């Protein structure tokens, strides 16, 4: 199984982000807000939003994005065919990274349960 994060696995265009936001199937916690929309591509795609209000410094915003991308790269095989937009709500550091990753995993698990119950 390949654990790559290629360009085809990313949401790049404004329209792609807008279509995920417009569906408004979302879950959130203190660290993140995750939006989800099914796609016909056969693999998941990820979009990231980390605003300056969340983290003032660019290096902190980049750290948050790297952490989320790494989690997605390692877990994409279990996500199914959907577009996800992860919006950071709270900045975190190396000390609180484990808590943030746990929170992110919990949100994706909630979305998976919600998706499974709505499709059956």
Automatic annotation (TrEMBL):
Q: What is its EC number?
A: 3.1.26.5
Pfam families found in the cross-reference section = Ribonuclease_P
What PROSITE patterns does the database record attribute to this sequence? RIBONUCLEASE_P (PS00648)
- What's its catalytic activity? Endonucleolytic cleavage of RNA, removing 5'-extranucleotides from tRNA precursor
Q: Which UniProt keywords apply?
A: Endonuclease, Hydrolase, Nuclease, RNA-binding, tRNA processing
Q: Which GO terms describe its biological process?
A: tRNA 5'-leader removal
- Tell me the InterPro entries matching this sequence: Ribosomal_Su5_D2-typ_SF, Ribsml_uS5_D2-typ_fold_subgr, RNase_P, RNase_P_CS
Transferase found in the keyword field: no
- Output the Gene Ontology cellular-component terms: ribonuclease P complex
What Gene Ontology molecular-function terms does this entry list?
A: 3'-tRNA processing endoribonuclease activity; ribonuclease P activity; tRNA binding
Per its UniProt entry, what is the enzyme's top EC class, as one word? Answer: hydrolase
Could you tell me what this protein does? RNaseP catalyzes the removal of the 5'-leader sequence from pre-tRNA to produce the mature 5'-terminus. It can also cleave other RNA substrates such as 4.5S RNA. The protein component plays an auxiliary but essential role in vivo by binding to the 5'-leader sequence and broadening the substrate specificity of the ribozyme.
Name the family.
Belongs to the RnpA family.
User: What is the annotated quaternary arrangement, including any partners?
Assistant: Consists of a catalytic RNA component (M1 or rnpB) and a protein subunit.
Q: What is this protein called?
A: Ribonuclease P protein component
